Amino acid sequence: MQENDPALDTDNPTHPITADALKPIVDDAKDFGEKLPMGMVFPVSTHNYEIRYWLAAAGIQPGMYTSTNIKGMTNGDIELSTTPPPQMPATLESGKNVAYCVGEPWNQQAVAKGIGVPVTTNYDIWKNNPEKVFGVTKKWADENPNTHIAVIKALIRAGKWLDATDASGTFLNREEACRILSQKNYVGADYDVLKNSMTGFFYFQKTDKREMPEFNVFFKGHATYPWYSDGVWFLTQMRRWGQVTEPKPENWYHETVRDVYLPSVYLQAAEHLLEEGFINKSEAPWETDGYKPPTNEFIDGIAFDGRDPIGHLNSHTIGNKDDS
Fold it and tell me: Can you state the angle between helices 145-163 and 263-276, rounded to 10 degrees?
């Protein structure tokens, strides 16, 4: 699925913005021997790579991972650390973090509490970027091939159910989904806060409600398909920030993602759903090599071609670079 997660700050900027406005504040803090604390949810989360991309696009070094320092703060202009998603608003309120990047509903929670405002969404950082993953171990996949396909079928059907709209474009099932998610054994967040982004609206401030019907995309546009090119982008970011500590040849990116992503399983599930009448022929990418067309729809305008990972890696000013 795609979910457009904002980075937050405690000021009141217009939306969307790059991190350029933040750079003088970062520089001033460094002049006083301080580094602004910011949060992301996990070192290999999309949120880590998104906030790093956003910061670096403005010339802010978010910090590097090294073989001897796995915190990812080496030579950073700020201090970017891990915080569990439900705790994000509390860290903003307490001042432990001055900004964070996290999924919903924890951005809207900050707005509802009056302690922060979104400054950008990851739709602005990378248009139609992938979010969230269903992953299993190879051992489980090998031992349970039919169950694996059945679970993928369920996920595809759930995504289509979530994206279903009436003729006017109003979501048919999102409110019911929010009622389910608000239960304590699921997300446990307030129903009204969950409903904001899920039903096609987003609050940038309490008085600034905007229509964003594609803030969450669960199915349409082949959003659930495991695109190799998406996996390649994440591998370039792992190398860019030093989580992959040594240079890798181009074929490593393609071979690694093919070892992890399983489009064949997805298409088997889709084939069953097509035969059962739950999807139509156009709702799965039957004829593809797994690579999306090149795009420059990033916040810095830099192009990404999944077939040229090292070219993309080397196109950035900040971060590791490798020989072709």
Answer: 70
Quote the pLDDT of residue 35.
Answer: 95
Please give the single-letter amino acid code of residue 218: F
Average pLDDT, the chain: 92
* Cα–Cα nearest to 17, from 102, 121, 97: 121
Residues 6+ apart with CB under 8 A from 323: 247, 310
**150's tokens:** 């059945």
Percent helix, strand and coil across the chain, each to the nearest 5: 40, 10, 45
Reported as a single tens digit per residue, the pLDDT across 252-277 is: 999 999 999 999 999 999 999 999 99
CA–centroid distance for 187 within its chain: 18
Q: Which two tokens stand for residue 279?
A: 């999807």
Cα–Cα distances (Å) from 146 to 6, 151, 218, 261, 279, in that order, read 37, 9, 23, 17, 19
Angle at 295 between CA 256 and CA 265, to 5 degrees: 40
Contact between 158 and 218 (Cβ < 8 Å): yes
Q: How far apart are CA 302 and CA 298, in angstroms?
A: 6
- Which CATH number is 2-125's, of 3.40.190.10, 1.10.287.990, 2.40.30.10, 1.20.910.10? 3.40.190.10
What's residue 212's pLDDT? 87
Best CA proximity match to 218, nearest among 239, 203, 200: 200
Number of separate helices (H) and strands (E) present in the chain: 13, 9
Contact predicate 50/6, CB 8 Å: no
**Domain segments of the chain as ranges:** 2-125
Contact 294, 217 (CB under 8 A): no
> How far, in Å, CA of 158 to CA of 176, rounded?
12
Cα first-last separation, the chain? 32
Q: What is the pLDDT of residues 93-120, one digit of tens each?
A: 999 999 999 999 999 999 989 999 898 8
Please state the pTM of the whole predicted model. Answer: 0.91
